[in-house]
Design goal:
With 130 residues, the protein is an alpha+beta fold. Helices cover 18% and strands 8% of the residues. The strands form 2 sheets. Strands 1-2 form a two-stranded antiparallel sheet. It has a two-stranded antiparallel ribbon with strand order 3-4. The radius of gyration is 15 Å and the shape is globular.
Amino acid sequence: MAGCGACRHRGRCRQRCTDSAGKRADSNGIVRVDKPKCIGCSYCISACPYQVRYLNPVTHVADKCDFCLESRLMKGFPPICVSACPQNALIFGREDSDVVQNWLKTHDYYEYQLPNVGKPHLYRRPGPMK
């Protein structure tokens, strides 16, 4: 899954934000852009080591995947990428949940981490061997 690493510590994107629009929620760890605060300077976009931020062409502010927080998570549904994956290769949940911890115990995985970047909250499965 390509997406925001939701770095465990203050990520570069949030460090570079001139208007403190980048926020990481304590309740779920999801990094979001506070759109009314964002001035669209693009500093966070260029600073994001995972290259997942973009300037929204309609709103003209920084944007990124928020794991369908408002449209699905708050209604009790997983992100659409998890529901739509034909191979059931994606799961979503709190890192300390039984579901995620059981999955980590029973699957091979790795954490994609770039050098000198905050440790991500994403675990990835290796692809099939060819």
